[in-house]
Write a structure and sequence with these properties.
The chain is mainly β. Helices cover 0% and strands 72% of the residues. A hairpin with a 4-residue loop joins strand 3 and strand 4.
Length: 180
């Protein structure tokens, strides 16, 4: 059990309090996460989410004003959540895409094992052209390792410039991401 655990990092702050089952043995270096109930409250705000690039190789960076309010419960292997995440004025640099997606606005909620991307939208520019991309959908947490995706994204006149060559194009797309 811990009260008021605070993490300061470049571009943000996160606080947590509650119960998380964890056994640490500093002599042997043993770390055990027992499958016992947990109950955490996590809050975070700031303007840099580049830490997420460590979870997704295609995301080089993500910045913008964000606010996270999240309750986590269940067990470490079968987590459940209730909360919200809001992003305003975001910029995402996608791996091998020269022009970033800018002015990203997004709202995400979670309840139990369901994460809902209520809406997300952004714009990209290149050589005087500007296009937009929007996304919505749901992600079901089956376990810590498996997520069931049901997402859709739409792009209109989205300029795409490949980082490592002279490939450029305008993209209209209607994309569905389903499965796990």
């Amino acid at each position: 059990m811990f009260d008021n655990l605070t993490f300061h990092f470049d571009g943000g702050i996160a606080t947590a309090q509650g119960r998380f089952p964890l056994i640490l043995n500093f002599d042997s270096g043993l770390v055990v996460v027992p499958q016992e109930p947990m109950a955490l409250t996590v809050k975070s705000s700031g303007n840099d989410l580049s830490i997420l690039s460590s979870l997704n190789d295609n995301l080089e960076s993500l910045t913008g004003d964000y606010d996270l309010q999240l309750d986590v419960y269940g067990t470490p292997q079968q987590p459940q959540t209730k909360g919200s995440f809001d992003l305003k004025n975001g910029t995402a640099k996608i791996y091998q895409m020269e022009n970033p997606i800018e002015n990203i606005q997004a709202q995400v909620t979670s309840q139990d094992k369901l994460i809902t991307l209520e809406w997300s939208e952004g714009k990209a520019r290149y050589r005087g052209k500007e296009g937009s991309v929007r996304a919505t959908g749901k992600i079901l947490i089956r376990s810590l390792q498996y997520f069931d995706y049901d997402l859709s994204a739409v792009a209109f006149d989205l300029p795409v410039k490949y980082d490592l060559g002279d490939i450029y194009g305008l993209c209209d797309a209607d994309l569905e991401i389903k499965g796990y």
